[in-house]
Design brief:
The chain is 49% helix and 19% strand. It is α/β, with parallel strands linked by helices and 277 residues long.
Length: 277
């Protein structure tokens, strides 16, 4: 019971932001019960087509053009209500269902992107990848199959990996990323700036994009110190030849500051209906 509550507290603290300490672990028992119910029903839900994808566009801050759409799985559960992407991905990762959810997500997103491009456009799609997927023996093959079946150009697909996973420095991680780069897909590091960034390791990885954590974007424009941190991250990424996406843009003040410091792309509620997809 203690280990279970500690585990729930850890995930809750991560969800609530950087340097968060979660004390009320006993109150998380309801969350654990909910997650167990979701875990039991998730595999049948995927097979029966009960899940759907919502796409959050990324806007070029220079031209205000939609460059790609980020795929996020959602589930309108008959008794538990709306289950968002963060909760779904967390449950799938912890319960060993990441390959099933990730495979469905990849196939659906590639199919949707291929349809967007039928008129001759260059829209791309971004898909989150979990640590468990990364260790699948046939993961590279599955990515290649999804591209081939939808006749989607590899450069139109961006695969997102969490900063902690990429920065762990495991040789097998680098090997998989290099194989994906050989396929021609783009690689993004998610939650950039949320943990200890190893510049040396990042510079040696085949990465194309970094996505700055929303917790860092929130104070931009209102807090000079936090704004300077984001500016430093943008300069660091640009120095390594990477594009930068600011996640969670909420207002015009943040948007103006991010444009001023040279951030490439943005996502968030500030973009209104575009954000809801």
């Amino acid at each position: 019971t203690l280990i279970s509550r500690a585990d729930q507290a850890m995930y809750r603290a991560k969800q609530l932001g950087r340097a968060r300490v979660e004390h009320d672990v006993a109150g998380l028992d309801g969350v654990a019960t909910r997650h167990r119910q979701l875990a039991v029903q998730l595999r049948p839900a995927i097979a029966e087509g009960a899940l759907r994808l919502v796409y959050h566009p990324a806007i070029d801050l220079g031209s205000d053009r939609v460059v790609f759409r980020e795929a996020a799985p959602h589930w309108r559960h008959p008794s538990l209500g709306e289950v968002n992407a963060g909760e779904l991905l967390q449950v799938a990762e912890r319960e060993g269902l990441a390959p099933e959810l990730g495979g469905w997500l990849l196939a659906e997103a590639c199919c949707a992107c291929a349809a967007w491009r039928t008129g001759g456009g260059e829209m791309g799609v971004s898909v989150p990848v979990s640590g468990r997927q990364l260790t699948e023996p046939r993961f590279i093959e599955h990515v290649g199959d999804a591209l081939a079946l939808t006749v989607l150009p590899p450069a139109a697909l961006t695969l997102e990996f969490g900063e902690a996973l990429v920065m762990a420095g495991r040789p097998e991680t680098r090997s998989v990323l290099e194989e994906l780069r050989t396929l021609g897909v783009k690689i993004a590091v998610d939650d950039f700036g949320s943990g200890p960034v190893s510049v040396g390791w990042l510079s040696r990885l085949p990465v194309d994009v970094v996505r700055i954590d929303p917790a860092l974007i929130g104070p931009v424009g209102a807090d000079a110190g936090e704004s300077r941190i984001v500016e430093a991250l943008v300069r660091l990424a640009h120095g390594l030849g990477l594009r930068v996406v600011a996640e969670g843009i909420d207002n015009d003040v943040q948007l103006a500051m991010l444009k001023q410091i040279g951030c490439d792309l943005g996502q968030g509620p500030r973009f209104g209906d575009l954000w809801r997809g």
